[in-house]
Structure formats: C-alpha cells, structure tokens
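Human: Respectfully, please carefully check these tokens:
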Amino acid sequence: MQYTSSLRRTATALAAAAAATALMTGCGPTGDTGAGAATPSSPPAASGPAPATATGGTGGSGATGGSSTGGAGGSSTGGATGGGGAKPTPSAPGGGGKVKACTTEDVEVSPAHLADVRPTGTGTGAVVVSVTSRAHCTLQGFPQVAGAGNGSPDKNLPLATTNSGTAAPVVLTPGARAWTKLTFVNVQGEADGYCVSGSTPVVFPSLVIRVPGAGAHQIGMDDGQFAECDNKVTVTPFSLTKPS
C-alpha cells in the first residue's frame, strides 16, 4: 500500500512538471497569448520631443539640444525667428515722434525790441520778444504779460491781455527762436503824455513774460522803458516767423 501511494505521488509530481513545461513553452516569443502581454511595447514617437521643422522655427527647437543641429538654434537667424520679428528702432528727434514741451530751463527770453509796425503815439506802442531754445522742445500758445512795478517782479501789475491769431505747436531745436509781438494802448502827446481814455500813462522799467509751460521771465527793453495806457496789451502766439 505504501508503494502504491508513492507511485501516485510520483505520477502527480510528473503531471505538475509537465504542466509547468507546457506553460513555459507558451511564454516564448512565438506564443500568441504571452507575447502580447509580456513583451514591452516601444515608446510612441509622439511621446518624445518633436524634431525641429521648417515651420516650427529653428531658434525654438529644444529636441536637438546639444547636437550640431541644435547649435543652429543659437544662431542669429534662429534667434530672430523665435523672437517674433525685428526689434523696433527708436524714433530720432523730429522724425515723427512726440517732442517734449519746453520747460523753464529750456528757454531764454530776450529783451524786448521796438516793433517796426506799432500804433501812433509817443509811448512804446509795440515790441517783439524772442524765446531762444536750449533744447529740442515744443512751444505753443500765447504769453501772459505783467508790468513789474519799479522793476520788481513782486510788485507785478497784470495787464488785461487780448490774444490775436491762432496758436500752433512750434518745434524748436537748440539755438532756434520763437517770436511774439506785444501791442499796447499807446501814450499820446509830449512830455508825460496822456491817454485817449483819460487814464494816466504808466511806465514800467521791465515786464514779466509768462511763456506757456516754460515759466515767468523778467525782461527789460533793449532801449528805453515800457510806456503804455490802460494796462492793456494784445499779444500774438509764439511763432517761428518774426513779426514786423
């Protein structure tokens, strides 16, 4: 009985070994079921970085990295393509870009000079005043005028101002001039003179001219003083053309 049991155990062991051998045979490269399950698939080409193409931009390719092809990505041509176009060129002064407004430090106001054309009378009548620029800047508008009592700006007497003409931007380069003309109600007669309105003539040693955006400047006349009536003045806008 013991021998029979031993034979049965031996037969069972041989059957198990045969089954294991058959299973191992099915895992070989020619097995239909095992090959598809056990053999790892190759990584899809799309999962890696895409190589550079003609439309992708040479400068933007990272797949070629340290290869010789990737070196072309650092070239000036590749950089320009990846950068989205040429860099803008700064505008040159006067080349269409906006020119800054003149400031107090940008201008110098000249002494007033008697105008060639002025109202009849014995007073000042009319003067021309120029502004010389120290910078590339724009001036626009009309001056404001005040008489400086005794030549002192702190004793200014603002004059009633009437604008004549249309103001337009005046672009000045260093050393260029803009002009304005001041026309007063003129004094009549000799000696101290008189005013047609019946008011008393006024004499100012100097005037304070306020240039639009460029501050107030005290000026005298290159010959004489400012004599006027009624504390009124008519002014023209600053222009590149010298008024008569």
Residues 1-96 have pLDDT under 50 and may be disordered. The domain at 104-235 is CATH 2.60.40 (Immunoglobulin-like). The longest helix spans residues 2-26. The first strand starts at residue 107 and ends at 109.
